[in-house]
Each structure stands twice: as structure tokens, then as C-alpha cells.
Amino acid sequence: MPSKKLSVFLFVILLLFIGQTALADRTYISSADFEEGELINVNPNKDQLQLDMPTISPFVYVVASGRGTVLRLDADTGEILGEYRTAPLGRERNPSRTSVDSKGNVWTANRDEDQPTTEGGEPSGSVVKIGIVIGGTRLVDPETGEMTEYIQGPFRYNTCVDRNNDGLIRTSRGLGDILSWPGGTDQIGGEDGIVEWAEDECILLYQRLPGAPNAHHVSVDADDNVWVGGYAGFNGNPLEGGSPNLFYHLNGHDASIIDEDSFSATDLGCGGFGGLVDANGILWSASPTQNMLLRYDPHPAVKKGACIDVAYSWGLAADTQGVIWNSMWFGQAIQRVNPDGSISELPFSTSSVGGADTGVAVTPADNNIWIAKDFNIHVVRLDDNGNIKSVINLWDNPTGISGDSPNGIAVDARGRVWVTNLSSNNVMRINPGTEQEPADVDLTVDLGNFADPDNYGNMTGAVAPEGIWTVIHDSQNPGNPWGVISWNSSEPEGTRIVVEARAAETEDELAKLDDLPGQGYTEVENGMEFNMAGQLIQIRVTFQPNEKAEGVTPVLFDLAVKSAQPQGQVCDLNDDSVIDIYDILGVFFTIGDSADQPFDPRDWDADGTITIIDARGCVLQCTYAYCQPADTCSE
Q1: What is the pLDDT of residue 567?
Q2: What's the CA gap between 26 and 34, in Å, rounded?
Q3: Are β-strands 95-100 and 456-457 bridged in parallel, bridged antiparallel, or unpaired?
Q4: Which end of the chain is more exposed for a tag (fewer CB within 10 A), N or C?
């Protein structure tokens, strides 16, 4: 047994070590604790952390086909938040079809692009993906007092990329503010479509499509990958030109081509004009010149397509029952197509209103069908039995502004109907009304001269902005082993809390981890062990709201981080399967020695030298409280 004086000496040493160990563990449980970290779109209230007024942010993307751009509008106010080029300088544009993914990004193709990617190559189309940023602070030019193109975070929501690493997002300020996009290597395409040359950092991807010139069809699937199909030679008249070409399936993350999924619509004889992917993953694509509708099943075990007889097949929409509604341009009618591709009824006529049936959309609340009447001034509303319920006059509406030649039509996240008007260069929002209040236009947005918004497909979207809490905890123990993060939370249906962590010795090293492949944040499971070491640990908690329900938020009640308990023979110097004061002394009194190779139980962090870190680490492994000797505890 050690003497009384030695025991006191050892007790003091152990208190020093154990004190350091206690600093490594931390629990965040009060509002004051949460406020030690960085709060983005979350707020501490009554000693818990939740989203800050969680709301869905709806928006509308409108193509200005005549200018070769896409505009993003706030669906609640109508404010135009940005205008973006759809191709680099030197490449043709004229976008039309749009499709919005689950993250709020929009895809559109350039109908005029048909030049080869290489000299002598085959005609090629192109497609672009544009991101979204919500919130942040627009920087002001100190000399002019005007808003600049730069936005500083934190953001409520952001999918744009800080390409030049200046800590800001450079992007369009609104209508007419179209940033340059030098050609560079972006215009060529290749293994991926990651944009490098665009000044606007919300322009994310651009890919060239050999064999799919004059791309019209663009539709995002459930995995946020995108189908793009060419429709070569179409000049606006279904009786003249327009032929199916290749369909490409692109990875939504980097626009790389998924070769095993892509197929030839030429071989099938239809498709490419525009369409959608339904809830079952089936690809539908109109084909007016062929008087056909393509139904293609891309599932690996099937990969088979069929052409369905539909005269002047034009616009497409799906209702909540999986029924496809196909507008018939010259036919002044709409065809009901069952999910399996069969047709059980004659087309429902809209000829009493006149004009040409183009864009079509369905309001999910009632499965009513809305049809835009080109060469006309009306939008027609039908029930799901084909009965005309109402006709909205775009010349005579409460906004006092006329709409002419409506074509594109879509429904936003709040159930309102948006229609783009080709000849009047504006877009209108229609309140679908109630049994007592008729549907009518409640907002008109001017898109500027030469907009020519020839807009088809899914042009609306919504995001439920996530919240983020990050905090850095200092263990004051170099090389501290981290092992468990646990928390208590409430996560209503459709919501989620995600906890991630990373560790390093300094804050600078933590920041640099973002630039090292595979060295960023690692997601951890609640109460489950993980391996990570460093004096500092940075924890990031992401609050994911319900994307379909406003005001529903996950809640974090508390979070605790604890050090790991190293396992194995390390620190057991006398190999008695117990780590006690004798083992700790063996480490402590040899500090400064080189470790024995290939294994030295004193070298807790395996860095080749016995240091104070090794002594502290071994204290963490003591078998009994205060590292008491085994023989004392067994008496």
C-alpha cells in the first residue's frame, strides 16, 4: 500500500487529471447554453430550441423565352427576386419547359440549342440548373448607397454556391439584372456539368446533350435527377416539324449523364415535347407532330416505352389519383389518360371557349383541371368529370391589367394558380376561390419587354427553410477522445433533427476541414459511440421542418457530449486487466520518453512519445473511482 503522504500526492495529481476530464464533457440544456452557439433560423425559448417561425416559402420560376433567361418570383408578393441566363455566352438559349426539384432548384432546357459540342459532331441540346437563396443581407455600395449583387449570410435557405470562396453569394438583384456568363469550358459539357464560369453563383449546372437537339422535355423525378429530351426541328406548329430524339437521365447533383438509363425516343416514335414524371416514376412526354403521347417505364426491370394515340398532344399534368390530363392544342379538348396508359373516355371538349388548349394544371385540393387558352384571353376550369366549372377572363380582372395568349400554367404551394401570358409579357396569379367566391386574378406581375414567357411544365415550388445550431466546445484537453453525443427531442411527423460533429485542435483547423475530402461533419446517432479526437469538438444540429405543413417544428430539449472511454490494453502497464494508480504513475513518471515500438501501453494517443496527454488519457480509463488500486478496492 502506498504511504499516506504518497496517497495525498497522488490524490492531488488525480484531481488535476480528473478536473481536465470533467471539462471535456458538456450538457446544453438552457436557453443561455444554446445561445453560446450560432443560431440560424432557430431560437431558444423556455430552455428549448426550435425553428424560428417555421413557414413554407413559395416561389414561381418564369422563363423569359425572348430574353433567354429565367426569373424567380416570390409567390406571395409577386416581387421578382432574380433573373438568370440559361446558357453561357456563345450558346443558344430560348428556354421554355421548367421543372422544380424538392430543394427548390429549377431546371430548364434551351430550345434553340442544336450545335455540336465538337467540330463535326452530332447536333446537341443543353440544360441548366439554377439554385435558390432566401434571406441574408444585401450589401450596399458605400459610394452610391445602392444594393450590390452580393448577399451575406446567414441565410434562411440557400442552395447557391460560393464559387470564389469570398464568404458571399453573388447573384441577380431582380428584373433586368442579368449577370454575365463567359463561355469558358462550361459551354462544352462533359463528365459533369458543374458550372465554373458564371458570375451568378446561383447558376449551378449546365450540360450539353449530344443527339438531343432543341431540347423541350424537362422533368425532375423523385430522386431529384432529371429527364431531358430533344424535339428537333419544331417551329411552333404541330403540323410542321418536330421529331423525337434521345432522352437523357442526368444526375441532379452534378448533371453527369446516367448512361444506363438514357434511351432513344426516335426508336419509339414519340415523345420529347414536354411532360412530367408521375408519382410512380413513369415518364410521360407529349409529341404533337406525331399525335402521340409517350409513356415510358424507366424501372430497371422494365425500361420499356409505348406511344399512345392522342391528337395534338401538348400540355400534361397529373392529378392526385395518378390520372394524366393531356391538353390537345388544335383539338380544343383535354384527354383523360389512366395511369396504365389506357384511355377510357372521349376527350372533354373546351371548344365553346375558343383558342388553343396549351398548358394544363391540377389543383390538388379538388382535382380540378385548369387549361390555358392560347390565341385567347381565358383560363378554363373543369371538374374531374370534364364539366366546365368556370372561365376566367384575363382581360377583365380585379388587377386592371390585361393578360393575352395564356400558355403555361401551374399551381403553387398555397393552391393558387399561375398563368404566363405570351403576348402581354406578364404572369398572373388566380385565386381559385370558394363556393361563395368565384375564381379570379388577384395579382399581375410585369415581366418587362421581350419576355415572351412561353412557359410550360412545373414552374412553382416551395421550401420549408431548415434551421441550424452550431456550437464549439473546448475540452481544454489536447487530443481529447470524443465518443458519445446524446439528446432529447420532439420530432413531429414529417420533421427531423440531424446531429453532426467534427473535431480538431484549433478553430482554424476546424474551418479547414470543409476543404478536405471526407473530413467534414459526420452524422452521429443518439447515444451511440463514435470515434473522434481533438481538443475542440464542433456540433451542428439541423432542424428539418415538415415541407407540407406550415408551423410544424422539431424541438431540441437538451444535448450532451461526452468523451470516449478508450478500450484495449492501452494504459494497463502491468497487464493485470485493471487500470489503477500504479499504471498512471508508470505513465506519469516516464513523460518525455520515446514510446516502445510497435506497441507501448503508456502511449495512449499512439504518437510515439509519452506525454501529459497520455497520462490524462489513461486517467479516463481507470477501472475504479479516483484510480484506486485494485487491491484496495477488492478488500
Answers
A1: 46
A2: 12
A3: parallel
A4: C
pLDDT given for residue 289 in this prediction: 94
Give 617's strand partners: none
**What pLDDT, on a 0 to 100 scale, did the predictor assign at position 161?**
96
| CA pair distance 590, 610, nearest whole angstrom | 7
Tell me the HSE value of 94 on the side-chain side, using a 13 A CA sphere.
13
Q: Is 446 within 8 Å of 420 (Cβ atoms)?
A: no
Contact in structure between 96 and 108 (CB atoms under 8 Å): yes
d(CA 410, CA 119): 40
Q: Please write down the HEC assignment for all residues of 23-51.
A: HHCEEECCHHHHCCCEEECEEECCCCEEE
| Amino acid symbol at 5 | K
Q: Output the CA–CA distances (angstroms, integers) from residue 319 to 90, 181, 227, 372, in the order listed.
A: 40, 38, 20, 17
Which residue, among 125, 130, 120, has the nearest Cα to 161 in the 3D structure?
Answer: 130
Burial of 325 (0-12, 13-18, 19+ CB in 10 A): buried
Residue 163 φ then ψ, to 5°? -65, -35
* Residue-range domains of the chain with CATH: 30-54+464-559 (2.60.120), 57-463 (2.130.10.10), 567-634 (1.10.1330)
The pLDDT of residue 520 = 77
Confidence (pLDDT) at 632: 72
Report d(CA 100, CA 25) in Å as an integer.
44
| Contact predicate 507/542, CB 8 Å | no
How many Cα atoms occupy the beta-carbon half-sphere of 521 within 13 Å? 14
Residue spans of the chain under pLDDT 50: 1-22, 566-568, 635
Instruction: Write phi, then psi, for 31 (nearest 5 degrees).
Output: -60, -40
Per-residue confidence (pLDDT) for residue 118, from 0 to 100: 85
**Cα dihedral 364, 366, 372, 373 in deg (nearest 10):** 160
Return the closest-CA partner of residue 424 out of 374, 473, 384, 386.
Answer: 374
Instruction: Identify the H or E element spanning 265.
Output: helix 265-268
Tell me how far apart the alpha carbons of residues 202 and 80 are, in angstroms, rounded to a whole number. 15
The H or E element that residue 20 is part of is: helix 4-24
Please choose, from the candidates 142, 40, 21, 214, the residue with its C-alpha nearest in 3D space to the C-alpha of residue 604: 21
CB 447 within 8 A of CB 432: no
- Closest residue by Cα to residue 617 from 58, 17, 11, 3: 17
Residues 232 and 245 sit within 8 Å (Cβ to Cβ): yes
User: What type of residue sits at position 297?
Assistant: D
CA-based nearest residue to 392, from 377, 409, 411, 412: 377
Q: To 10 degrees, the CA torsion angle through 95, 114, 88, 192?
A: 100
How high is the pLDDT of residue 158?
92
* % of the chain exceeding 70 in pLDDT: 93
CA distance 300 to 261: 8
| Contact (Cβ atoms closer than 8 angstroms) between residue 418 and residue 460 | yes
Using alpha carbons only, give the angle 163, 168, 171 rounded to the nearest 5 degrees.
75
